């Protein structure tokens, strides 16, 4: 056996061990980027995938917030609240599809980026709003709530990064929640103008922030 063959054979165990180690590290990273309750991506995992998706001009950014979630937790308990969050996550992920991404940002707040192939995001999200309001399988039908959705087309604000688009979707979601409108799209121009990243109505926001009409 020549020297080269001997070196290559001796290197095989090391290469195999390194491949296994890389596979293990990737598994750990993927686990760290998944929310243990819902299975959705955590904020870091969502940010990584969503930023890549925003290169597509058809991308739509969505923010979702469960209405009166604290009240449900207080009345029915955290087990019921957890079941509601899990169902919300499953339904959101299903509607976003494999081409998009959904994540849990924390608590009862979710975000998604979807690719709007046919320009029908408004219709899709209206349907999603109805689906999210359905009672959770296996739970008391009396335990139900709605989910307020705010969304924005990335192409409407080409200079915004993910953070800016999420802020606009957050403002639209807050407007939808206040108006009990279900879903609301962030229109062009200021919408419940923010100061230092805080929407009107939040602590630290300017009291005289202008309010501009919003496209439904």
Can you offer a commentary on this structure?
The chain has 216 residues and is an alpha+beta fold. The protein is 45% helix and 14% strand. The chain contains 6 helices and 5 strands. It has a 5-stranded mixed β-sheet with strand order 2-3-1-4-5, sandwiched between helices. Helix 3 crosses helix 4 and helix 4 packs antiparallel against helix 5. 33% of the residues are buried. The C terminus is likely disordered.
Class based on secondary structure composition and strand pairing: alpha+beta
- Rg calculated over all Cα atoms: 22 Å
**Percentage beta strand:** 5-15%
What value does the average pLDDT take? Answer: 81
How many helical stretches?
6
End-to-end Cα distance: 75 Å
Fraction in helix: 40-55%
Give, in spatial order, the strands making up the sheet with the most strands: 2-3-1-4-5
Order of helices and strands: HHEHHEEHEHE
Q: What profile does the largest beta sheet have?
A: 5 strands, mixed
**Low-pLDDT windows of residues:** 18-31, 189-198, 200-216
**How many distinct beta strands?**
5
Cα shape: globular
